[in-house]
Amino acid sequence: MGRTAKKRDVPHLPPVEKIQLSEGHPHLRLVAAALLLLLGAGALAYAFTNLLTPQSGWQKISVSSSAPLNCGDEFVLLYNLGAGGTSPLAEHRELVSLYSHACVHAYKLFNTRQSFDGVNNLYDLNQHPNEVLEVEDTLYHAFTLLEDCENRSLYLGPIYEVYDSLFYAADDLEAASFDPFVNQEMHDYIAQLIPFVNDPEAIKLELLGSNRVRLKVSDSYLSYAQTNGVTNFVDFFWLKNAFIVDYLAESLIQGGYTLGSLSSFDGFSRTLDDSGTPHSFNIYDRVGQSIQLAAVMEFSGPMSIVYLRDHLMGILDERRYYQWENGQIRTPYVDAQDGLSRTSTDSLVGYSQAMGCAQILLHMIPSYVGREFSLKHMKDLAVQGVWSVHCDDDIIYHTDPSLSLSGPSQAEEAVYIPTLVS
User: Fold this and answer.
1) pLDDT single digits (tens) 171-181
2) Among 32, 129, 221, 365, which residue's beta carbon has the most beta carbons within 10 A?
3) Rounded CA gap, 366 and 201, in Å?
4) What is the CA radius of gyration of the chain?
5) Is the four-CA dihedral 270, 286, 409, 380 of positive or negative sign?
6) Per DSSP, what are the bridge partners of residue 268?
7) What are the backbone angles phi and psi of residue 195, rounded to the nearest 5°?
C-alpha cells in the first residue's frame, strides 16, 4: 500500500468580528508599536542567550564546527564547567578551542592516507621507507611504547587494509571478497605477508633519538609490496584511539583542565577528574547474542580504562566490525602470529590509575588477542600494574581487591582473583 498524505483538519472557527480602530493619536500607536518591538527583541535575545550560553555542571564539549578535518566524531569529552570557580562561558570557549586544536592535530599525526604541511605522519613514513624523518614527540613516544612492549602490531598495516575493506562491506556478498576465513585467496595473501610482518630484518622502525626515525624495509619486502600494491607498511589501525585519547588527555591536562573525562567509541577512556567526584563504568556480559549489563564499576580520581569486546555496541562500531547475516562477527583484533581476527574471550576490561590507555592496551593484547584465555592472564596483567575485569558464565572475575561493584541485579557473582595465587 502506498503512503498517502492526510489533510490537516481545520477546526470550525467563529465568525470574525470587525473592530474599527480609532484614527486619533497616531503618535501613541507608533510609540506602542516601538515598545512591543523592543519587548519582542528582548525576549528573543534572552531566549537565545539562555539556549546558547553554556550552563555550569557536566556538559559535553564538541569540536568547533569551523575546525578542519579532525577525529572529534570518535570521542566524547564531558567537562564539569564552572566547578573550578571560573566562568562556564569563558571555560567553555577555551575548552572548545583547545580540544578542537588537539583533535585536528591528532587526525593529522596518525593519518595513513594523506600528508599535511609541517607534520611528518604515518603516511609520510610509509611513503619514505629507509629514509630518516623527524616526527613529533607524540608519535615518537607511541613508537617507543610499542618497542618497549615488543609489540609488532604496527607492522600489520597491509593486513589491516584487508580488514578495513571487510568492515566497510555493504553486504555479505561483498564481505566474502575480503574475509580471510571465507575467501581462500585473501587467506593466502595474508599468509604471504605474515613472514614479512614478523621479521625484524624485513621491516623495523628504527628509533634514532631526538625524534628521528627510519622505517627500515628490506629489498625483498619492497619488491613484494610493489608487485602487490602494498602502500601501508605501518598503521596503528584499531590501536590508534588508545594513543589519541592519551594525547587529548595530556593536552587538556597541560592546558590546566582536569575536571573532565574523555572516551572513544571503541573502548578507550580517560577520567582526569581529581576532585573526588564519584565516577562509574559499566561492565557488560554477552550471553549468546544478548548484551546485558552485569555490574557498574565505581571509582574516583584519575583513571584510564580499556574495554576490549568481540561484539558491536553502537553505530560507529561498523567502522571496526563486520557482522554476517548468520550472526558471526569479525573484529579488528588481528593476531600478529597469523594475521587472523581472534579474541580469546567475549570481553575484557583493563584499568589503571598510573598508566595511560595505550600502555594498558599493549599489556592486554597478549591476553586478549589470541586463541585462549585463562585466569592466569588476568594475574599476569595485575603483575604488570593493570587491574582487570572479565565475565564468564554469570560470574565476574576481577583482580582488584578494592574494586567496588554495583549492578541492576545480583545475577552476576563477583569473584576476586588473588594475584599471587599460582
Assistant:
1) 999 999 999 99
2) 221
3) 23
4) 28
5) negative
6) 306
7) -60, -35
- Cα(299)–Cα(413) distance, rounded to whole angstroms? 19
Listed residue (129, 153, 108) closest to 206, CA to CA: 129
Contacts by 312-321, CB closer than 8 A, 24 or more apart: 313/284, 314/265, 316/73, 316/74, 316/265, 316/266, 317/265, 317/266, 318/167, 319/167, 319/168, 320/167, 320/238, 320/266, 321/167
Q: What percent of the chain shows pLDDT beyond 90?
A: 79
The pTM score is 0.87
Of 294, 288, 293, 250, the C-alpha closest to 272 is 250
**Closest to 132 in 3D by CA, of 120, 144, 148:** 120
Contacts of 321 (CB under 8 A, 6+ apart): 167, 311, 312, 329, 330, 331, 332
Of the chain, the end-to-end C-alpha distance in Å amounts to 68
What would the grid cell of residue 420 be?
599471587
Tell me the C-alpha distance between 177 and 169, whole Å: 9
**Residues 82-102: tens digit of each pLDDT:** 998 889 999 999 999 999 999
The tens digit of pLDDT for each residue in 9-20 reads 333 333 433 334
- C-alpha cell at position 144: 617507543
C-beta separation of 257 from 241 below 8 A:
no
Report whether 194 contacts 338 (CB < 8 A). Answer: yes
pLDDT digits (tens, 9 = 90+) for 250-274: 999 999 999 999 999 999 999 999 8
Closest CA to 301 of 322, 280, 267, 276: 276
Q: Which residues contact 244 (CB under 8 A, 6 or more apart)?
A: 71, 75, 106, 110, 264
